[in-house]
Write a structure and sequence with these properties.
The complex is a heterodimer of chains A (391) and B (287). Chain A is α/β, with parallel strands linked by helices and 391 residues long. Chain A is built from 12 helices and 14 strands. Helices cover 39% and strands 21% of the residues of chain A. In chain A, the strands form 2 sheets. In chain A, strands 6, 7, 8, 9, 10, 11, 12, 13 and 14 form a 9-stranded mixed sheet that branches. In chain A, helix 4 links the parallel strand 3 and strand 4. The longest helix of chain A is centred in the last third of the chain and has 19 residues. Chain B contains 11 helices and 2 strands; from the N terminus they run ααααββααααααα. A two-stranded antiparallel sheet of chain B has the order 1-2. In chain B, helix 1 runs antiparallel to helix 8 and helix 2 packs parallel to helix 4. Chain B starts with a helix and ends in an 8-residue tail after the last helix. Classes of the chains: A alpha/beta (391), B mainly alpha (287).
């Protein structure tokens, strides 16, 4: 961490001596304060780490765009506990006077942060949490998302399932916001095209004893199963599904989180799973090649979607600073600059909707040899309907 | 629910229950014999799973990894008892709770530093990586049957040790009157160290054998700890037999409520606990 800062300083001063920086040097005295509210311990720790790594990588690589301004990081561990969110967000907002607050992973935490930060001076950038409300009824000029809305990754899978000829599907997830919203999005497009949800299974969060439910699925014998699970739960589900012998009998479909950052742990059990997501490991674009290479060499492990979303939050900040010549004191101008930006993301270029959610392609991916390989674009430039947003 | 499905779910419940028994037995043993309430018991389960992952990767053999991990866990148990738990004898449960909660944080931090936060997976060892087809749709993994068998064997082993050996006699005597055992010239401290280390090893072994079936993730210890306490309270604190019966009850109730009463399934094991406590305030087989 300390080394990163040193590296950043060295890079900035190198750029300065090379005469790359504009005349905004009187601003250079004041660092840009970037608050980070991610889980660094507990169930979602891996997701928090990846998001932070991506964010810092983007801001280090694009230091030249910051017009001589240093970045000061203020990091708080949310532990993915919603009840702590308001207090942590308040301290970054009032005590630290953060310019940007990046977080969180968990949708429950997002609701708590949003309550405190909506319509305030700090800019909130959500690098993961997909809760519909954050860019729906709770949308605000100063709240941006560089990830997805819960609806986006799951909705295109309905059509994929219909095209594959599946008529009867069982859906399954944990019984919490993100899970239920994902199943609803799939259901919306699947039933609109004539498909039938024969059973919906909601498992109490964070329970991972899936065997009874999977036995039940086998007895129901649907054409396919659609699930939302992430992290450790996704590993356990895929292993259980395979252990009970269903993987080669009933096709498993999912929102892409099912196989993100988990493939190594899932091993052969994940082979052949179809998922839809706004990213795939082997996307063939220059930004992705560079990003994956840099990420792997900086952090010693392959990048996943959580790293991409953190990286794009960093790109968004760097671009906005560049547009404004390093002066972000006028918040209206800052928001306008952010809103108008096109992010050259590893997932492909994306813009922001009126509600500040990415308008992005959703890819159909298949797990082949332990990698999420892209098969096709399941939905191009998909915009979240942002139901309830008044922006 | 037809009869095949019912039998399947019963198998699922029994298998889950047996694993719970293996985890909970160490907790109840340490409490029964030494009067120590070890909240870090779940952390020992986590340590077992992470050690198994680490040694499978370094040695390439699950069997070798399991033996090394179990030995390390045993030594860890001895170390914890000699340095920390020894200060807690004759102190109240609140002090024990404070210390062992502190240990949970220490082990979580160590896990994060040593092995990172990504979910990890252990492959099922090749010689157990088969499945027995039960219907045309479902097959049952051999590994899970092996784990169930192992839990039963360990349970029988514990029962025989406590009820049929000299060591077991001392353990039972120490349980009822520590001072008298000391007066008879038995080194009670050594006995305590042994019992505590055995409790830690049991939790770690549960973690080791679970590793190929679950995802090895931060926080996995806390998750099992709560279920363990439910099992131990139902069975009666300190009773191995109670832990066995309680674990099977919890496993079966949890499995069937998941399917038949999904909306309230997360509460069912606690409702079961409440009902048992209403009828038997100290649990089913409290000593």
């Amino acid at each position: 961490m300390h080394n990163n800062k040193k590296g950043l300083r060295a890079l900035v001063s190198a750029c300065a001596t090379a005469g790359l920086l504009s005349v905004g040097s009187n601003l250079a005295a004041e660092p840009v304060k970037v608050g980070i509210m991610l889980p660094f311990s507990g169930v979602y720790a891996a997701l928090g780490d990846a998001g932070r790594n991506g964010l810092k990588l983007a801001l280090t690589q694009n230091a030249a765009q910051l017009h001589g301004r240093d970045i000061e990081y203020l990091e708080l561990d949310t532990e993915a506990r919603p009840e702590r969110a308001p207090e942590l967000a308040s301290s970054l907002l009032d005590k630290d006077k953060a310019d940007f607050i990046i977080g969180p992973v968990h949708s429950g935490v997002a609701m708590g942060m949003s309550k405190v930060l909506r319509n305030k001076d700090a800019i909130m950038i959500i690098p993961n949490a997909g809760a519909a409300a954050a860019t729906g009824p709770l949308c605000a000029p100063n709240v941006f998302r560089t990830s997805f809305s819960s609806w986006q990754p799951s909705w295109p899978m309905g059509k994929v399932a219909l095209d594959a000829g599946y008529k009867k599907v069982v859906t399954m997830s944990w019984n919490y916001g993100m899970g239920k919203e994902s199943l609803e999005a799939f259901e919306e497009s699947f039933t609109a095209g004539g498909g039938e949800i024969v059973k919906q299974i909601l498992v109490p969060f964070p329970k991972t004893e899936f065997q009874p439910y999977i036995t039940d699925i086998a007895a129901t014998a649907p054409d396919a199963v659609f699930v939302f699970f992430a992290g450790g739960g996704a590993v356990k589900f895929v292993k259980d599904y395979n252990a009970l012998g269903l993987s080669d009998k009933i096709p498993l479909l999912g929102a892409g989180f099912l196989t993100e950052g988990t493939l190594e742990a899932q091993g052969d059990a994940a082979e052949g799973i179809l998922t839809t997501l706004h990213y795939a490991d082997n996307l063939d674009n220059a930004a992705n090649h560079k990003f994956r290479q840099d990420y792997a060499s900086s952090f010693g492990k392959p990048a996943d979607i959580y790293a991409v979303q953190g990286y794009d939050a960093g790109l968004l900040i760097a671009q906005a600073l560049n547009t404004l010549g390093g002066d972000i004191s006028n918040r209206t101008a800052l928001i306008a600059a952010m809103q108008a930006s096109t992010i050259d993301s590893p997932r492909g270029k994306f813009t922001f909707s009126k509600a500040h959610n990415p308008v992005q392609d959703i890819y159909l991916r298949k797990v082949v040899n332990g990698e999420n390989q892209v098969l096709s674009i399941a939905a191009a430039a998909l915009e979240d309907p942002a139901r309830g947003c008044k922006l | 629910m037809d009869i095949t499905l019912f039998l399947f779910q019963l198998m699922n419940g029994v298998q889950y229950g047996l694993l719970l028994f293996l985890i909970a037995s160490g907790l109840t043993l340490v409490f029964g014999v030494m009067g120590i309430l070890n909240l870090a018991h779940g952390s020992m389960y986590m340590v077992g799973a992470y050690l198994a992952w680490y040694f499978v990767n370094t040695t390439g053999s699950f069997g070798v990894a399991a033996v090394i991990s179990a030995i390390i866990a045993l030594l860890l148990g001895i170390l914890i008892e000699r340095t920390l738990i020894i200060r807690l004898y004759r102190r109240n449960h609140l002090d024990q709770v404070l210390l062992t909660i502190g240990l949970i944080f220490v082990f979580n931090a160590l896990q994060s530093l040593l092995w990172g936060n990504d979910p990890l997976g252990v492959a099922v060892p090749a010689w157990l990586d088969g499945a027995i087809p039960l219907t045309e749709m479902i097959e049952y993994p051999v590994y899970r049957l092996f784990v169930s068998g192992l839990c039963i064997l360990i349970g029988i082993g514990m029962y025989l040790t406590i009820n049929r050996t000299r060591l077991g006699m001392l353990i039972r005597a120490g349980e009822s009157n520590r001072d008298m055992v000391e007066c008879l010239g038995v080194d009670i401290n050594r006995l305590y160290t042994l019992v505590f280390a055995a409790g830690v090893a049991l939790a770690a072994i549960a973690g080791i054998v679970s590793a190929p079936m679950v995802s090895v993730v931060p926080g996995m210890g806390e998750h099992v700890l709560i279920s363990c306490f439910v099992v131990v309270v139902i069975g009666g604190m300190g009773s191995i037999k109670g832990a066995f019966v309680g674990a099977l009850m919890v496993g079966i109730v949890d499995t069937f409520s998941s399917i038949m009463l999904p909306q309230v399934s997360s509460m069912m094991i606690y409702i079961l606990m409440a009902v048992v406590l209403l009828i038997r305030p100290r649990g089913l087989f409290a000593s």
